[in-house]
Amino acid sequence: MNHEEKVARWIGRGARGVEIGPGSSPVPGLEPRPVYVDCFKAFGAEVSLADYYGHAGALPFHDHSLDYVVASHVLEHVANPAGALAEWRRVTRPGGIIYLVVPDRRMTFDRTRPLTTLDHLLDDLEAGTTACDPTHIDDFAFGVDWSLFSPNTAHDEIDAARKKLARGMHEAVARGEDINIHFHTFEPGSLGDFLGTLPRIDAGRFGWDVAELAPCFPVSCPNG
Fold first, then answer.
1. Whole-angstrom distance, CA of residue 26 vs CA of residue 72
2. Which letter, b or e, does each residue of 75-108 get, where b requires 16 or more Cβ atoms within 10 Å of its Cβ?
3. N or C: which end of the chain has fewer CB within 10 A?
4. CB contact at 8 A, 131 and 81
């Protein structure tokens, strides 16, 4: 299935919502156009279409004021995914939809990194980890499959490129800046466990049911 089919099934037309982190490629099929929220004004050569710039965990909406929240290839970029999900739940009305697409690490440059554990994700919730945090940098910079992350880098230059990336991010954090990396890695099973565990921990903040968990989505980019 594709986004248009899933959106028609779960959200429909006329709903009022927000898309987190659309970049320059928002999820198609959402009508009327949602509010676009992003943390960064650009990602590489892509310029964001955002209407509002801010953090995924601090949205400018009243409680239960939206029909849906959409976030495609965003959750892995969030330093505290559970905290962000709690915020998305806060702004969504009872019976509303949180529509997620999360990449399977095995089909991305994260395939050489370890799977993030549930305990790690819960620790980040308890600590209130932010995007200005150094603890995930080395795991990312020295763990990704560089042949997919930066395929034009010569083999004998990869080690230096990893060190340069890590150094630049550590310097950014030292300046108090947010960084944009895959803080965490997921697979369908681990994501399902994560989403299923949170309501048992705090039904008030994470009061949801997982209606559908579909691997290899969408067909145009089946790594989610």
1. 8
2. bbbbbbbbbbbbbbbbbbeeebbbbbbbbbbebb
3. N
4. no
Q: Where in the chain is the domain with CATH 3.40.50.150?
A: 3-104+185-201
**Rounded-to-integer distance, Cα 26 and Cα 38, Å:** 11
Tokens representing residue 91 in the block = 């702004």
User: Which CATH fold would you assign to the domain 3-104+185-201?
Assistant: Rossmann fold (3.40.50)
* CA count, 13 A, side-chain hemisphere, 50: 19
The three-state (H, E, C) secondary structure of 97-124, written as one string? EEEEECCCHHHCHHHHCCCCCHHHHHHH
Give, in order, the Cα–Cα distances in Å from 24 to each of 37, 39, 98, 103: 12, 13, 21, 18
Length of the chain: 224
Mapped onto helix, strand or coil, the DSSP state of residue 40 is coil
Q: Per-residue pLDDT tens for 38-78? A: 988 766 667 788 999 999 999 999 999 999 999 999 999 99
Q: Whole-model pTM?
A: 0.94
- Cα–Cα dist 98/85, whole Å: 9
Smallest CA-to-CA distance from 73 within 24, 133, 121, 115 is with 24
